[in-house]
Amino acid sequence: ESGLLTWLLGLQQLIVYFSPDATLSSERWTLPKLQLQKLRLKVSGESDRTGQGPFDVVLSAVLDAAQDKQQKGDKVTVLQAAWRRRNVQGKFQQTVSEMMEINGLIEGLAEREKELEEEAAAWEAKQM
After folding, report:
1. Of 18, 23, 36, 67, which is the most exposed, with the fewest CB atoms less than 10 Å away?
2. pTM score over 0.85
């Protein structure tokens, strides 16, 4: 899939390059944006498929990974016991929620910063 993402980015760059209309930099894809969207879609699809909330899907994936590790070694037993405690699960869900909110705020700030830079450039062009 990483090769596909590279081709997708390259195709998008070609479209932007040959497009008669200028596009905003915030509308262009980047590899991190594509990877984040891929993860969001994967969690959303699993959430729809299982009927669980997105936090439960992520927690379930972590537990599944821990169970897979346990089959290969006994060191994961302590980790699984800790995950099963409700207070740890609650803290994990809260942390994931806060992390998603922070990521959303960072993306919003980055987009706003680019918009302000473009507005400043346009304003300077009008002043000249």
Report:
1. 18
2. no
